[in-house]
């Protein structure tokens, strides 16, 4: 136990100073986002803050990606708005518990590896769309409440002060690392701009203007909902969507951090950790959450590579709530807006713009579409799903055009069809058009040495070709089927019956119906 504890908190190649400072930077940046997401979901700001603390702490300790930050997120907040409005906050807590159980099940069943099915153009589109969403979300801080109670854009001195402080923050974050790396530039920028506002007497919006973050320790709370089938049917759709959104965002963020740090995380372990974290936060009055790409990038860029930084961020956030709320509420929003603008700039894959003319048009289409869905609908799961489906359809279409048939007659008068390319649902029709039952001799051989049967549509295509030849009294032989294709044919013996011939791996296909009639 002692060795495990030591490895957790003092892993190899861990710079304790960088881990602690990056964790504190993340904790400061978590405050306004957690508050904002709580307001979006229609719950108390403390609900979002407690969620960020609980999920951040548990996933940092148990998760599959050291250095990744989790907490309350906008993607989850958007999903639960309708549930809170229609059923109340207690149903939200129950839905979060069920969400966590679903995520644990996904991890136990080792389904996290399905993230490998996400193509690179979808990743580009997801990251670019998220960068734009992060940047656009900051624009609301440039609005103020008019005397009539409506939101309107700032004008005059408040606007100039806000823009000036944002620019100063971005300049510090950008250029301070060229002078020193002793302190994370993001943390230095937040502290520097805060001191400038406090001692300079500048009138600008602060964290305290959003909401008070003062509170006590989170308390255990059983969701006050009826334990019956009706309740399950109410929360299940929301829980399933939240679980899917949370896992997709978490696993894509994990993949992105893997690329940046050139290390490898564990997707299934992260799924289980996310699930345990959400079950726990549901029993402590939380709103549910997942990995946060913006905060994770802040952490990694500030030097956080291990679990220490995530633990410091979570514990630091709780300390802010308990003891330092007065001081944290004095931080100007401009400093945090500038930080998030730099995160957005760093998140955007600028290299993707340079490859537009160098990659297939279908990849560009997928990339742009995923970006647009992410930006316009703010639904990351839907954007990724659409991207994967379109990429899969494009792949199927391209492979359907690859099937070819080389034809020749041997010295015995047998016609050979050598098939090239996969035989599956998209290529089945083209495959059937390659044959000429009326013009061919009495025996033909279909050679699959350079092909394979992929699905039931491929089996059905062979069935139809064989049936056409049988109707005109001719015989079809199949040669060189690989093992997986043979298994498919064996499982489809109710449709067709396969008999091996003496030579090599060739075998004759006889329709099951005709075999039955012969008996």
From TrEMBL:
| Keyword Transmembrane among record annotations | yes
Annotated membrane topology: Multi-pass membrane protein
User: What name does this protein carry?
Assistant: SulP family inorganic anion transporter
Domain named STAS is located at 404-487
Identify the main location: membrane
Q: Where in the cell is it found?
A: Membrane
Q: Which CDD domains match?
A: STAS_SulP_like_sulfate_transporter
Q: Answer yes or no on keyword Transmembrane.
A: yes
Instruction: Name the Gene3D superfamilies on file.
Output: STAS domain (3.30.750.24)
A Pfam family the protein falls into: STAS
Looking up InterPro entries in the UniProt record yields: Membrane-Transporter-like (IPR052706), SLC26A/SulP_dom (IPR011547), STAS_dom (IPR002645), STAS_dom_sf (IPR036513)
Provide the transmembrane region boundaries. Answer: 68-85, 91-109, 121-139, 159-176, 183-202, 232-257, 308-328, 334-352, 364-397
Which keywords does UniProt give here?
Membrane, Transmembrane, Transmembrane helix
């Amino acid at each position: 136990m002692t060795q495990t504890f030591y490895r957790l908190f003092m892993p190899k190649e861990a710079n304790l100073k960088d881990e602690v400072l990056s964790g504190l930077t993340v904790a400061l940046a978590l405050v306004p986002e957690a508050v904002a997401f709580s307001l979006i979901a229609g719950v108390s700001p403390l609900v979002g803050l407690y969620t960020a603390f609980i999920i951040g702490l548990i996933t940092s300790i148990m998760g599959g990606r050291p250095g990744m930050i989790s907490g309350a997120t906008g993607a989850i907040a958007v999903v639960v708005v309708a549930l809170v409005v229609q059923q109340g906050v207690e149903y939200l807590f129950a839905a979060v518990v069920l969400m966590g159980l679903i995520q644990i099940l996904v991890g136990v069943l080792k389904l996290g590896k399905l993230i490998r099915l996400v193509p690179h153009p979808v990743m580009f589109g997801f990251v670019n769309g998220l960068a734009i969403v992060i940047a656009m979300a900051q624009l609301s801080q440039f609005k103020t409440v008019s005397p009539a109670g409506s939101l309107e854009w700032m004008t005059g001195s408040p606007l100039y002060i806000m823009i000036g402080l944002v620019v100063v923050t971005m300049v510090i974050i950008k250029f301070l690392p060229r002078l020193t790396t002793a302190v994370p530039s993001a943390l230095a920028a937040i502290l520097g701009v805060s001191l400038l506002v406090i001692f300079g007497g500048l009138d600008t919006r602060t964290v305290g203007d959003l909401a008070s973050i003062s509170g006590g320790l989170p308390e255990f709370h059983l969701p006050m909902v009826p334990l019956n089938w009706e309740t399950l049917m109410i929360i299940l759709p929301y829980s399933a969507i939240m679980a899917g959104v949370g896992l997709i965002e978490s696993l894509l963020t994990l993949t992105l951090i893997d690329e940046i740090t050139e290390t490898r995380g564990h997707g299934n372990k992260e799924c289980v950790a996310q699930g345990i974290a959400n079950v726990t936060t549901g029993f402590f009055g939380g709103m549910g959450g997942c990995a946060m790409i913006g905060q994770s990038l802040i952490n990694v860029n500030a030097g956080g590579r291990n679990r220490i930084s995530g633990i410091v961020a979570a514990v630091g956030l709780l300390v802010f709530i308990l003891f330092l709320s007065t001081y944290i509420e004095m931080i100007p929003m401009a400093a945090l807006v500038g930080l998030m603008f730099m995160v957005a700039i760093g998140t955007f894959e600028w290299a993707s713009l340079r490859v537009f003319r160098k990659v297939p048009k279908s990849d560009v289409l997928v990339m742009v579409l995923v970006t647009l869905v992410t930006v316009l609908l703010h639904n990351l799961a839907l954007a990724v799903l659409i991207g994967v489906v379109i990429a899969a359809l494009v792949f199927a279409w391209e492979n359907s055009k690859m099937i070819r048939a080389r034809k020749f007659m041997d010295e015995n008068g047998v016609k050979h069809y050598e098939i090239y390319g996969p035989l599956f649902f998209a290529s089945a029709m083209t495959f059937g058009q390659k044959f000429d039952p009326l013009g061919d001799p009495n025996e033909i051989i279909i050679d699959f040495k350079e092909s394979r049967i992929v699905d039931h549509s491929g089996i059905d295509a062979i069935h139809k070709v064989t049936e056409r030849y049988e109707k005109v009294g001719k015989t079809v032989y199949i040669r060189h089927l690989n093992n997986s294709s043979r298994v498919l044919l064996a499982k489809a013996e109710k449709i067709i019956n396969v008999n091996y011939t003496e030579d090599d791996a060739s075998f004759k296909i006889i329709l099951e119906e005709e075999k039955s009639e012969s008996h």
